[in-house]
Task: structure prediction
Amino acid sequence: MKNKREIIFRIVITVGALLSSILVLLVFFYILKESIPFFKEINISQYILGESWSPLSPSPNYSFLPMILSTLYVSFLALAIATPLSVGCALFLSFHVNKKHSKIILSFIDMIAGVPSVIFGFIGLVLLVKFLEKSLEMATGESVLAGGLLLSVMLFPYIVTGCAETFEKNKAEYNAASQSLGVSVWYTMRKIILPSSLNSIFVNMLLAFSRAIGETMAVMMVTGNSPIFPRLLGRAETIPSLIALEMGTATYKSIHYSSLYAAGLILIVIIFIIQFIAHKINNMGARKRL
Result:
């Protein structure tokens, strides 16, 4: 009976994995198919190295460079803000809070990840944008800075959860030996736990970065959506925001329509590269532990 259950479970898992893989491939190839007319029509130097996005002008320009830079700028800024806070929070929960209370706090932190992005966008628009506008005397608070700050809050639970799990494992492995030698908790965290967890922290950062790159609604509501080269206190437009704003108005099967699928393809390629790097780093860390 036990063997039958295991076989059924393996079949279900295998079928689920195959269906998920097929679905991802179908989405990828559909986006690729729809973007081919754009790549045939527009020279690579124009959409990668061009300076402006104006698909509806008499002399249309289809440069993705401002949006690519804006996407990376907002995502890197969010990651730079979220990572130190998340790692610090995870260390605090692992070493200075008992296990029962730590689980309760982590469950509340996980709830942040379940909040719809439009809610974050609304809060950012009403509170964060107005705060930046007044405190920094800006013409408008919609900016890369607003997007990075808001996105850092959204990335916080992803990094905390991953790091806390790693710290707990390393604590179980090293903490008893450290205490027997009379080593302080601070020294254990700084010299033993953090160095042994660097691979895991970096992988969690890359996964959170992938999440940040694909975020649409919240970022769209606070960055101003101007397809120009990004500045910290200036407006910007990310690739997901571009697709969300213009797909509904693009003429079906036009170059403009195809260009938005091409933007999505570029986004998928960037995320795939990040995921591949994270996978390689994770494997390297596993081999070192063995």
Remarks:
- The CA atoms of residues 42 and 62 lie 8 Å apart.
- The chain has two domains: 2-32, 64-289.
